[in-house]
From TrEMBL, chain A:
It is a peripheral membrane protein. This is ABC-type D-xylose/L-arabinose transporter. SUPFAM superfamilies: MOP-like, P-loop containing nucleoside triphosphate hydrolases. Pfam families: ABC_tran, OB_MalK. Its EC number is 7.5.2.13. Keywords: ATP-binding, Cell membrane, Membrane, Nucleotide-binding, Translocase, Transport. It comes from Natrialba swarupiae. The keyword Cell membrane applies. Belongs to the ABC transporter superfamily. Carbohydrate uptake transporter-1 (CUT1) (TC 3.A.1.1) family. Part of the ABC transporter complex XacGHIJK involved in the uptake of xylose and arabinose. Responsible for energy coupling to the transport system. GO terms for biological process: carbohydrate transport. One of its GO terms (molecular function) is ABC-type transporter activity. It catalyses: D-xylose(out) + ATP + H2O = D-xylose(in) + ADP + phosphate + H(+); L-arabinose(out) + ATP + H2O = L-arabinose(in) + ADP + phosphate + H(+). The complex is composed of two ATP-binding proteins (XacJ and XacK), two transmembrane proteins (XacH and XacI) and a solute-binding protein (XacG).
UniProtKB/TrEMBL annotation, chain B:
Its main location: membrane. Pfam families: BPD_transp_1 (PF00528). Coiled coil: none annotated. Keywords: Membrane, Transmembrane, Transmembrane helix, Transport. This is Carbohydrate ABC transporter permease. It comes from the Archaea. One of its GO terms (biological process) is transmembrane transport.
Length: 381, 304
């Protein structure tokens, strides 16, 4: 158990004369026992960051410290970390028991009985104790996943690193493992860094999420804070499924003028926007209300092009009727309500739910209102 | 198929003509060609085998492919050939086994270093290994002889007379090991490149150092490739005559290919003894293939 510090961590790759910056000045403090999810699109540098923590990649700049001790020059073998790989990376010629014991044999001086005891304890915890004498090739994907996890847990490391460990499982198994991993991490209380490209995993599993794009850290915050208070356009678009709708707008007096609509602003929001003219209006699909008649200035006539009934909700693809560019946006409505394809409705964009971003820099200028902000965005640890 | 029509099924003639119709002419042609090829490739072996069991008059008065009749049948050529080659067989075994194991082991270690460890200048080293594969034996004969004359291994080993007497064989062992390392390295390298990098990294994080990873992960997983290199190197080194002719000077150190060469009589050609000798010389490579055959198949199909 330990605190993990990343301070200005940078990774540069030399690619035939060109220098590629894979990770750019990333600083994160990860508390003892915290579950941090590193998330971002592929190629954003999240795996490289993890591999630098593991000691599998050298650090070009900055420092990584475990409990205050800088480990930049400590080889992977001596970092007291355990890692679960996407491919599981089990040793195919060894039984499950040997796989799990390998780390203990290589990194500790325990006697065989103690090692076996610890392996069996961990296997029981993961419900793989009846598989101990089997080879990895005789196991299903889910079982292999558990063995990979067991191999990491049995070593009782200071830090757990997980590199997309669930991405090779089928959807059902994945959601089950998601919960189990959280429970395990909570019970063991080991500091964990978890890499994924899946925003659902990030939202559901992490105590905090660190969102990376193009090697740069975009935001580190609790999942709900990232969701409701995205710092910039990238975070707003990345977190949430279906993702937030964005409309290019320009600020004219106290209105946001977009293609096919004009959105009047109240003075408190207007004052937050200062002098910027080129803006982006953002609103989440579930915040748009679908009505039959126009009541306020924030209601717009729309046509519904596509309806995807999900049971619990409907995902709609809609467009402003007055929009010449025919751009479309997503709306999520209650599943119990029947919405007809090709029909005209009124869509309400409540002012309390809108986000406004600067189009040039992407920085959030205004975020949605939250009634009880303190309770909702409170950290879970 | 042939009994599709119940009215025709009763008569034998109808069935026969239908069977003939269904025979695929292409397939027939294929089998004829294949049988011809089998005959073509097996005939020398067969001729050799029959000759080895014939007496002197037997192989003079019959064609090689005719099997030996009881009148001309004899096991004498085998006995004579074996007696003449006994020393050569032992000498060969004494240097081929270590040379094979050494080149496979060193090749495997070199390949591990060139694929799973990262260090500067790998490409340059790899190029040297690659070049080594294409170096023809003939081109190094003179420098090789000069090198071993300069080293004077027998003189260096004079403290141990047994080894000093066998210096020729030691020279052969070292030469063949050195000559075998490049091809073994290339073979192991192509195999190690298919090994999961994450698995090696997992072992690293588990606390194993470079040699520990080799010993406990890479080596056990390379057994199929070891079978391939062992078979290949054994055959290569066992069948070599050129280096032996250049390096082996004392008759007591003659290797099997040299003693086979010696079976050529100076006056009369005793083909029966030569043929028996050829089979005796070839037997160990066949045994090795049988022993490692299963692993060999795994190794060349890439299954692990």
């Amino acid at each position: 158990m330990a605190k993990l510090t990343l301070d200005g961590v940078t990774k540069r790759f030399d690619d035939g004369g060109d220098v590629i910056v894979a990770v750019d000045d990333v600083s994160i403090e990860i508390d003892d026992g915290e579950f941090l999810v590193l998330v971002g699109p592929s190629g954003c540098g999240k795996s490289t960051t993890l591999r630098m923590i593991a000691g599998l990649e050298t650090i070009s700049d900055g420092r990584i410290a475990i409990d205050g001790d800088v480990v930049n020059d400590v080889p992977a073998q001596q970092r007291e970390i355990a890692m679960v790989f996407q491919s599981y990376a089990l040793y195919p010629h060894m039984t499950v028991r040997e796989n799990m014991r390998f780390g203990l044999e290589e990194s500790t001086t325990l006697d065989t009985d103690t090692m076996n005891e610890r392996v069996e304890e961990t296997a029981t915890m993961l419900e793989i104790d009846d598989l101990l004498e089997r080879k990895p090739s005789e196991l299903s994907g889910g079982q292999q996943q558990r063995v990979a996890l067991g191999r990491a847990i049995v070593r009782d490391p200071a830090v757990f690193l997980m590199d997309e460990p669930l991405s090779n499982l089928d959807a059902k198994l994945r959601s089950g493992m998601r919960m189990e991993l959280q429970r395990l991490q909570h019970d063991l209380g080991v500091t964990t860094v978890y890499v994924t490209h899946d925003q659902t995993e990030a939202m559901t599993m992490g105590d905090r999420i660190a969102i990376l794009d193009d090697g740069e850290l975009q935001q580190v915050a609790t999942p709900l804070e990232c969701y409701h208070r995205p710092k910039n356009l990238f975070v707003a678009g990345f977190i949430g499924e279906p993702s937030m709708n964005f409309f290019d707008v320009s600020l004219e007096d106290d209105r946001l003028v977009g293609s096919g609509f004009e959105y009047p602003l109240s003075s408190p929001i207007r004052s937050e926007l200062a002098g910027d003219e080129k803006l982006v209006l953002g609103i989440r699909p579930e915040d748009i209300e679908v009505l039959d008649a126009r009541e306020t200035a924030h209601d717009f006539p729309v046509r519904v092009d596509v309806v995807e009934p999900m049971g619990n909700e409907n995902n709609l693809l809609a467009g402003f009727r007055t929009d010449e560019n025919d751009s479309q946006f997503n709306v999520t409505t209650d599943g119990m309500r029947r919405i007809e394809e090709g029909t005209h409705y009124i869509a309400r964009f409540p002012e309390s739910a809108i986000h406004v971003f600067d189009r040039e820099s992407g920085v959030a200028l205004h975020s949605r209102e939250i009634d009880d902000e303190a309770t909702l965005l409170e950290s879970r640890i | 198929m042939t009994t599709a029509e119940p009215t025709d099924a009763g008569t034998g003639e109808g069935r026969l003509s239908e069977t003939i119709e269904t025979v695929d002419t292409q397939r027939v042609a294929l089998y004829v060609v294949l049988a011809g090829l089998i005959g073509f490739y097996l005939s020398p072996l067969w001729a050799g085998l029959t000759t080895a069991f014939k007496t002197q008059t037997g192989f003079v008065e019959t064609t090689p492919v005719t099997p030996p009749t009881p009148a001309w049948f004899t096991l004498e050529p085998w006995e004579l050939a074996f007696a003449a080659m006994q020393g050569g067989l032992i000498n060969s075994a004494m240097f081929v086994v270590p040379a094979t194991i050494l080149s496979a082991t060193l090749g495997s270690l070199a390949a591990y270093g060139l694929t799973k460890l990262s260090w500067r200048g790998q490409v340059g080293i790899l190029v040297i290994f690659l070049a080594g594969v294409f170096l023809p034996y003939q081109s190094v004969l003179v420098p090789l002889r000069q090198f071993w004359s300069a080293v004077d291994l027998a003189g260096l080993l004079s403290f141990a007379p047994f080894l000093a007497n066998r210096a020729d064989l030691l020279e052969l062992t070292i030469t063949h090991t050195a000559y075998g390392i490049p091809i073994c390295t290339i073979l192991f390298r192509s195999y190690y490149k298919t090994l999961d990098d994450e698995m090696i990294e997992a072992a690293k994080i588990d606390g194993a150092n470079a040699f520990g990873i080799y010993k406990r992960i890479v080596l056990p997983l390379s057994l199929p490739m070891f079978a391939v290199t062992l078979i290949y190197q054994f055959t290569q080194v066992w069948n070599d005559l050129l280096f032996a002719l250049v390096l082996v000077t004392s008759r007591s150190n003659y290797v099997v290919t040299q003693s086979l060469n010696e079976l050529q009589g100076s006056m009369a050609q005793e083909y029966n003894i030569q043929m028996a000798g050829a089979f005796i010389a070839a037997l160990p490579t066949i045994i090795i293939y049988v022993i490692f055959g299963r692993q060999f198949a795994k190794g060349i199909t890439g299954a692990s």
